[in-house]
Structures are given as C-alpha cells and as structure tokens.
C-alpha cells in the first residue's frame, strides 16, 4: 500500500520495542518514511538505526513535550502500553501511569496542533456479555487494564485533538525481536512440537489480530485521513481452545493434545471478558481494511519456516 506525500510525513512511534511498534518501524523503513522510534527502554530492534531512536517514557510529561516539540511529527502512533492484564492488577499505579497518564501527556502537548494521533486500544474495554461488539457499544471494563485503556479513550474523546484515530484490537500476535512475552500461538507451537499436552480455556472468545493487519490499518488511516474509532481485528470469532486446535492441526499433531478447561480452572489475577469479539465492518468500509484469516497467518509466525 503506497503512502501519499511520503516525503512530508514525520511519524513518531511510541512503544517501538513492542510487537506493533517494531512492525511500524519496519513498515516505515520499507516505504522510505521518516520516523522517530521511541520506547521506555533502550532500542531492542536490530534493524532500527540508532539515529532514528530515542528513549521516551510517556509517563514523563517533560520528556513527551521535549521530544514532540523537537521532532515536530505530522503523525504519532501511540503503541506504548502496559498490556499484561494480570500485572496490571498487581501493579495498578504503573498501569495507570502508562496507559492513562501517558496518554494525557500526549494530549496536553498536541491538543492545539494539527498532528494526527493514532492511538491503539483494546477489546478489554468491554465486559464480554454481548459476544460481538461494534464501536458504539457501551464500555464496561472488568479489570484494571481495560479500565485504564477506557479512561484513556475517554480523555482522548474529550480532548481538543483535531485529528484523532482510535484503533481497538484483540489478541495482537506476530513475530518480533526480544519481546517480553511470546504470543500464545507460538507458545502452543513450541509445546505441541515438544510432545507436550496443553490446557486451553474453552469459554473465552476472541477475534485475534495479526500484527501486519493492524499496521495496514494504521497507515490506511493516515493515507485516507480517517478519524474516529475503529475496530481492527481478525475476521473470525473463535474460542481460545478452537484457536489452539487449529494450531495443533497446522503443526500436525492430534487435537487430543489440546485439553479444554474453564477460565475458573486457571485462577488468573485479572478478570477477563468471556466474549469480546470485535465487529470490523466500519474499518472494512472506511479504511478498506482487509484482515487475514487466522489459519493463513500461521506459516508467517512459524519460527521453523
């Protein structure tokens, strides 16, 4: 997908060490786009030039102001977030400092500018009682992660930012470098190929999102100058158990090696929505969003390929 007036774009990426951030950096490099990658820790991306990276903790208002005013971006992709939902329960202060206060710092710095902010949000703002959600459905987050992300969305929508795009996603997965946590699908591949039997919940339903599809949506919103809130996720609703059974078939092992269990059996710290599928018709229509079917992405994330 080509970009209009690529020479005029200056893209500031927050959270560049994360999965989405890494793929945004790669897209910029592949398409000759000017960018500045930032993360709260030193650069972990082997292909990101040191001259295009700065350390930025978005919870520091002073640092946010310094970098935005010195770099003068045309666009900001805010991929910085604390996304470990269980850790958000036990480290609540850090969760809100990054997920809410960090966003407020960005708002305060750019609210009277023409900068286009693309903010990444989550299906966990919903309580999971409806099964499938449209953009306008009522938010009712269950855990601290979802609450912090919803409070950030609320601040953004109440702000004076002229050009704002919120992209909500669900179980983002893909391949990256030095990530803090392996995605569940790669973990399942490793476990099943290692001869193990694994337990997977059969009462949580999601629309998992391939990272390259989310990158596509980010840049289509830039190219098309589309503002507002969009659901950007996979095209299919599956239980986690069904997803891992598809992985089992892909790696060539018997589905009996995947054992269904209930959410209660896991005793996780954070409550999770039972079904937080995202309906993506709006993104398809207005962004020309074209998501990849889950089974078609497995060869792209398979470390043996």
Structure, briefly:
This protein has 305 residues and is α/β, with parallel strands linked by helices. 39% of the residues lie in helices and 19% in strands.
Which tags fit this structure?
305 residues, alpha/beta, Rossmann fold, seven-stranded parallel sheet, two-stranded parallel sheet, 11 helices
Commentary on this structure:
With 305 residues, the protein is an alpha/beta fold. It has one domain (7-175, 208-236, 277-293): 3-Layer(aba) Sandwich (Rossmann fold). The protein has helices spanning 19-30, 61-71, 85-90, 92-110, 144-158, 184-193, 211-224, 240-251, 263-266, 281-287, 294-301; strands at 10-14, 34-39, 53-55, 75-78, 116-122, 131-133, 163-169, 172-173, 198-201, 205-206, 209-210, 228-231, 238-239, 258-261, 276-278. The strands form five sheets. A seven-stranded parallel β-sheet has the order 3-2-1-4-5-7-12, sandwiched between helices. β1 (10-14), α1 (19-30) and β2 (34-39) form a beta-alpha-beta unit. It is globular, with a radius of gyration of 19 Å.
CATH superfamily: NAD(P)-binding Rossmann-like Domain
**CATH topology grouping:** Rossmann fold
Sequence of strands across the biggest β-sheet: 3-2-1-4-5-7-12
How many distinct helices? Answer: 11
The count of DSSP E runs of length 2 or more, i.e. the number of strands, is 15
Can you name the CATH architecture? 3-Layer(aba) Sandwich
The succession of helices and strands, N to C, reads EHEEHEHHEEHEEHEEEHEEHEHEHH
What portion of residues belong to β-strands? 15-25%
List unreliable stretches of 5+ residues: none
Number of domains: 1
Structural class: alpha/beta
What is the straight-line distance between the termini?
25 Å
The percentage helix is: 25-40%
